[in-house]
Amino acid sequence: MKHFKTLTMAATMSALAGMATAEERFITIGTGGQTGVYFVVGQSICRLVNRNTETTGLKCTAPSTGGSIANINAISAGDMDMGVAQSDWQFHAYNGTSEFEGKKVDKLRAVFSVHGEPFTVVARKDSGVDSFEALFGKRVNVGNPGSGQRATMDVVLAAMGKSTADFALASELKPAEQAAALGDNKVDAIVYTVGHPNGSIQEATSTVDAVLLPVTGEAIDKLVSENPYYAKAVIPGGMYAGTDSDVETFGVKATFVTSSDVADDVVYEVVKAVFDNFDRFKGLHPAFANLVEADMISDGLSAPLHPGAEKYYKERGWIQ
Ligand code: GLU
User: Fold this and answer.
1) Pocket lined around ligand 1, Cβ cut-off 6 Å
2) CATH number for the domain whose boundaries are 25-116+253-315
3) Which of 192, 249, 257, 285 to mutate to test the pocket of ligand 1 (most atoms within 8 A of CB)?
4) pLDDT per residue over 52-105, tens digit each?
5) Is 174 helix (H, G, I), strand (E, B) or coil?
6) What is the Å distance from ligand 1's center to 193 Cα?
7) Per-residue CA distances from 66 to 100, 220, 237, 267 (Å)
């Protein structure tokens, strides 16, 4: 009985101490569609951050959003604190180029990069489409405005001297809707810049006979050689029904970004929650399995590192 009382007292004291020191602060992380990987990135980071709420006061939520461009815009407007964004759109937002011409996001800051995201095109087998070029004249879901894939698709089309007007239909369905649209024969193909394996492509390739298309050729080679944020990528054969051999394409990195307006200690605690529990984090999605810390703090980052992240990386001896 005496022992029980002592424990209760200790627990009460520590709860009171926690309340006294940690002021409650809410952070929001922008993700993507619920069938993608960004949603899991945000949810996983929040899960780790929220384990420390008692000491840090931080309460993290990661709602579904329109994707990369929507996240960067929300961070820029101060509506969200952090978000996931493709490396190409991090670059353009920070430099005020492409979609972000005249809308430079000076306060964008890099935190770390995550998994690779191959530019992925899936076509119904009965559409007869067997290459990217064969998509012209067909019905293609180019993605919702605000998504990374939609913006990157525009770049790919422009590099080929084409536009969405060259498709019989260019639909703008969200990732969560596109697999069903492919299955219901509302479109011949769907486009998604996304980590693998993921629920959306799994759903698409299991509801209808479908094949992943290679995205290669001169225009793609030029995009990759001229831009640091693009790289050649391969989607391993056997990952999805209907595609047994490796599929060559190009890709970007998923990156985690924030704003210079977000306090250093907040970013520090978020980064610490991820890297202090890195094995646990890697176990939260198969696309995270091969992540390596050294790559994550350099690859695909073009905006300056946020000082809160830098502080943690210095403490770990990862940077000078
Ligand atoms: N790359 C996509 C985008 O920027 C999101 C992919 C995902 O949700 O995993 O919108």
Assistant:
1) 32-33, 36-38, 67-68, 86, 117, 147-149, 193-195
2) 3.40.190.10
3) 192
4) 999 999 999 999 999 999 999 999 999 999 999 999 999 999 999 999 999 999
5) coil
6) 6
7) 17, 25, 29, 23
Contact 94, 211 (CB under 8 A): no
| CA dist., res. 58 & res. 308, Å (int) | 15
Q: Is the pLDDT assigned to residue 7 strictly greater than 50?
A: no
Among the listed residues 231, 174, 236, 184, the one whose alpha carbon sits nearest the alpha carbon of residue 210: 184
**CA-based nearest residue to 155, from 227, 96, 248, 213:** 227
**From 3.40.190.10, 3.40.50.360, 3.10.310.30, 3.40.50.11540, which CATH number describes the 117-252 domain?**
3.40.190.10
Q: In one letter, which amino acid is 194?
A: V
Question: Which regions of the chain carry the CATH code 3.40.190.10?
Answer: 25-116+253-315, 117-252
**Percent of the chain scored above 70 by pLDDT?**
93
CA of 72 to the centre of ligand 1 (A): 12
Give CA separation, 221 vs 87, 150, 285, 297, in Å.
18, 20, 30, 26
Positive or negative, the CA dihedral 33, 34, 38, 43 is positive
- Which residue has the CA at smallest separation from atom 3 of ligand 1? 148
Alpha helices in the chain (DSSP H): 2-21, 38-50, 53-56, 68-77, 87-95, 148-159, 175-183, 199-207, 218-226, 264-275, 278-282, 293-296, 307-315
| Closest CA relative to residue 291, chosen from 306, 275, 303 | 275
Whole-number Å distance between alpha carbons of 205 and 197? 12
- Is 181 in contact with 171 (CB distance < 8 Å)? yes
| pLDDT above 60: residue 230 | yes
Alpha-carbon distance of 320 to 249, in angstroms, equals 35
What is the spatial distance between Cα 43 and Cα 88, in angstroms, rounded to a whole number? 23
Q: Give this prediction's pTM.
A: 0.93
